[in-house]
Amino acid sequence: MEQACEKQDSVCNLVAVFENNRNLRRRGSCGSFWRRSRPMWLACTCLTRPVFFQELLREAGHSKAFPEDVVKLIFSNISSIYRFHAQFFLPELQRRVDDWTATPRIGDVIQKLAPFLKMYSEYVKNFERAAELLATWMDKSQPFQEVVTRIQCSEASGSLTLQHHMLEPVQRIPRYELLLKEYVQKLPAQAPDLEDAQRALDMIFSAAQHSNAAIAEMERLQGLWDVYQRLGLEDDIVDPSNTLLREGPVLKISFRRSDPMERYLVLFNNMLLYCVPRVLQVGAQFQVRTRIDVAGMKVRELTDAEFPHSFLVSGKQRTLELQARSRDEMVSWMQACQAAIDQVEKRSETFKAAVQGPQGDTQEPKPQVEELGLRAPQWVRDKMVTMCMRCQEPFNALTRRRHHCRACGYVVCAKCSDYRAELKYDSNRPNRVCLTCYTFLTGNVLPQGKEDKKRGILEKEASAAPDQSLVCSFLQLIGDKCSRSLPRSWCVIPRDDPLVLYVYAAPQDTKAHTSIPLLGYQVISGPQGDPRVFQLQQSGQQYTFKAESVELQGRWVRAIKRAASGQTPEGPDEEDVSD
């Protein structure tokens, strides 16, 4: 039997004959189909004797020109696969062929031996690495190349290359599945082999899935290794159980600089790595600047006209304002982050349910409130304020510089942030905080002389959010003394004070530099012939504004006309003209 097996041509040629055989595609009786297809079954279960493996192993042991381990790595477990076919699968099918008249069935034979086909998974998983090793040693070792070339030219190889023979075991299980599927389709409804053949087909399908899973796992590990190498193989991030979800470049919106910076994100199933490019890319390409745990992370879109396609990633360790290059890229990043968050939350809920058991608390948990110090805040950008967000004193470059409270993210002066409190998100290390956060986090009473003073008429926060204002946007106040120092101002008509226009130096300021009671004012087009310009006039008072677009100018004119006539919004159904 083994001699007959060795005389078979290569599997690839025989399967090609099988696929080109038109008789196998004709509908006919099961017996006639089996009589025509059984030579193909026997050919498919026969492997060419592993001549390459034996000869290369013999040469490696004799001449020591190349390591024996290299040969074993290239051919993996091909010897075990060959012995299985030569000593078990092929003889069993041959006996059934010889006794086909008395026992016209093969489903039971395949069922008995199909579980052993999972040994192909190891070979398939190693195939890509084996192909690389083969190419390397064909170039590196002359004796290795001579042995391979000599066997390829011999009759035993069937005039096929070693690479061709190495590919055949990878294709073998799918061929079994196709052949058995056609066999089942041609069986009559009352055929005694129908049930066993269907079960055998399911087992062959399972073996094929096992091989596919092995390939997917190999690709996952290879992708992880490539990422870890680019990040410098740091001990605290290298974990083979991680799943890489997405990676790619993004722009980081700085709270100090006006132009965003190039950064690189790597999203795993359990963490987001915020990386910066290395100046000297020797070995690692990126340096991990921050690791943000997916557990507790939140992601949302930012509505920022200056930085389109921007989104916020808020984690316990840090909060990042990021900008994508397109809206599709932004949506893709947000969806990937949200999918990772949902998966972590799902596992957490499953764990809690398992711990509590069926007698656990069935009440719906209350939503957690984001408390100061538990997670990194979103820092207000420097250019969004011109004065301290606590004491309302204006900043300058010498005596009152900008600082950030590490608890709330506000931009404050040195006097208002001369306090330190332990923050849980920063491993309970003391951090600079403002007076308000210091009082909240430590429980200490306000020092004498630090109490809040009575608010002035202009001390009203700039309501940048659309739901807090009737209309808000940047406008240029032409002819005003502030226009000489500021190219544009942040203008707001608040919902809780709908008859007054407040003019701020920056969107996050808590004190306006001008307030205009709108009642009785007339709104006219500007004299400069620019459709974006409009004027407010009353009793010798005149203010000239310039909007960034004609549409925005129209929205402001409509809102001011309503306020000038004394109309106030009665409910949420009023026209929303906020920008």
UniProtKB/TrEMBL annotation:
> A GO molecular-function term, please?
guanyl-nucleotide exchange factor activity
In the UniProt record, the signal sequence range is none
Instruction: State the UniProt keywords alphabetically.
Output: Cytoplasm, Cytoskeleton, Guanine-nucleotide releasing factor, Metal-binding, Phosphoprotein, Repeat, Zinc, Zinc-finger
Q: Where in the cell is it found?
A: Cytoplasm, Cytoskeleton
Q: Which GO terms describe its cellular component?
A: cytoplasm; cytoskeleton
Asked if the record carries the keyword Membrane, the reply is no
UniProt GO BP: cytoskeleton organization; filopodium assembly
Q: Which SUPFAM superfamilies match?
A: DBL homology domain (DH-domain), FYVE/PHD zinc finger, PH domain-like
Keyword Zinc belongs to the record: yes
DH domain mapped to chain residues: 52-214
Residue span(s) of domain PH: 243-342, 468-565
Classify the main location.
cytoplasm
The cross-references to InterPro entries, in alphabetical order and at most eight, read:
DBL_dom_sf (IPR035899), DH_dom (IPR000219), FGD1-4_PH2 (IPR035941), FGD2_PH1 (IPR037797), FYVE_RhoGEF_PH (IPR051092), PH-like_dom_sf (IPR011993), PH_domain (IPR001849), SOS1_NGEF_PH (IPR055251)
List residues of the FYVE-type domain: 382-442
- Mind telling me what this protein is named? FYVE, RhoGEF and PH domain-containing protein 2 isoform X3
Q: What species is given as this protein's source?
A: Mus caroli (Ryukyu mouse)
